[in-house]
Amino acid sequence: MNKKNVLITGASRGIGRAIATRLTADGYQVINFDRLAPPDLLEGEAFHCIDITDSAAVKKLIQEIASRTEIVRLVNNAGIIKPGTLEDVTDQDFDAVCALNLKAPMVLAQCLLPYMRKANFGRIVNIASRAALGKEERTAYSATKAGLQGMTRTWALELAQFGITVNAIGPGPIATELFTSGNPPGAPKTIKIIESIPVKRMGQPEDIAHAAAYLMDERASFVTGQTLYVCGGMTVGLSNAS
């Protein structure tokens, strides 16, 4: 059995890909659950095309994989944003965001929990967002990310006795393909965002990957129930705002 396996959702692009790349470099075998295939497979990567909002399919696939190899590390990275002001949020959009950002991480953790408890070891990292603290046009998204942080703290309390740590990462503005498509480099809106970041630069997917690698490590056993904001200092600025 290989304790160095890590299941990452949405690992084919953006932050998920950076996490997968970093953890592969650190000696992990990546199990990638995504609807899109990655451009190229990493060394030892196993890609599974799956809609993780389909709970039955997720449970079946994890059972199949776990019959062959041990999985005691999980990164809940996949997520979607359905922007809109309060009056524009639809039931369909809200339900879709909740299904992927909130329910799917819970189902995945439930599926892997028996294997973690058996091993008396586990690592769960949930990718939340600075938007959990509040952001315009993010009613559904901020609600689910705040909920993910709440589940993180609850799971940490329930699972600590089994050697399982549960933490969250709250990214600030990260220069992913999705972000740059709506905020081109040099555009006034992009410049304004960068100027609002204390470190005066956009975050990179690798910044989040570095945080995830730390929380995945066996030596990070005394850190649980925490949200690590990787935001260039923006969260500090928010907390000091009048």
N-to-C order of helices and strands: EHEEHEHEHEHHHEH
Described by strand count, sense and barrel closure, the largest sheet is: 7 strands, parallel
- Tell me the fraction of residues in β-strands, as a range: 15-25%
Mean pLDDT: 94
Number of domains: 1
**Distance linking N and C termini:** 53 Å
List keywords for this structure.
Rossmann fold; 7 strands; 242 residues; seven-stranded parallel beta sheet
Short description:
The chain has 242 residues and is an alpha/beta fold. The protein has helices spanning 14-25, 55-66, 91-119, 139-159, 177-182, 188-195, 205-216, 234-239, and strands at 5-9, 29-34, 46-49, 73-76, 122-127, 164-171, 227-230.
Protein architecture, described:
The chain is of the alpha/beta class and 242 residues long. It has one domain (5-174, 204-239): NAD(P)-binding Rossmann-like Domain (Rossmann fold), CATH 3.40.50. The protein contains 8 helices and 7 strands. It has helices at residues 14-25, 55-66, 91-119, 139-159, 177-182, 188-195, 205-216, 234-239; strands at residues 5-9, 29-34, 46-49, 73-76, 122-127, 164-171, 227-230. The chain has a 7-stranded parallel sheet with strand order 3-2-1-4-5-6-7, with helices on both faces. Helix 2 (55-66) runs parallel beside helix 3 (91-119) and helix 3 runs parallel beside helix 4. The chain is globular, with a radius of gyration of 17 Å. It starts with a strand and ends with a helix. The model has no long low-confidence stretch (mean pLDDT 94).
